[in-house]
Amino acid sequence: MVHFVGAGPGAPDLITLRGARLLSEADQVIIAGSLVNPALLESCRGNCRILDSSVMTLEEVIGAIRRAEEEGKTTVRLHTGDPSLYGAIREQMACLDRLGIAYDVTPGVSSFLGASAALRTEYTIPGKSQTLILTRMAGRTPVPESESIPALAAHGSAMAVFLSAGMLPRLQEELLQGAFTEETPAAIVCRATWPDEKILRCPLGALAQTAEKEGIRKTALILVGDFLNDTSDENLRSRLYDPAFTTEYRKGTGNSA
Q: What does the DSSP 8-state code read for residue 176?
């Protein structure tokens, strides 16, 4: 059996209870290289085989899984964050389907959630932000033309940009081709929830300069949008807890708070 497990954003206690249990029971763990906090492996059994997929091809990963299956052993494929986001798991699943090897998926806390926690903010603020776009820059790996940064930025929705910290001058330029301005608030969250977490806030027009000054070139998530703005208490009120608002569970007073 193969278990795809989300390791979470970095802190070892942010893996799910199920993920931690599967990790402690595994005969073989294949990790996504330096992206996964090695502290997570401390829960593995002493005789557990640990492999680093950063130096492996897809064929080598599947080969290691197949050998474990032939030996009657269990494999945990440990991915950073949540496996469904930039985890390249569908190609692995397709191979396992062809080989008739059973697998399941245990979700994890994605880095975009770790980043909002680190920033102590909310992506969905009433009247200000109700949509979050998760995406990445086109680099050595292309993206569909309809999902280019300028095309997505045209919506003006909040954005979390993965895998793009090494291309910030171009990312800044392309974001500004959409609905954002140089004053739109942005944040660079490097290694969210890790001990060396770093948070940098700046206007979008200073994004690349800020990252360069701080030496940020990888392992960072870029957040852009008005949800990062300081907002008055009045603008933060939701209808859900407004005493004037009637819900299925309580009757409103009819007078705004």
A: T
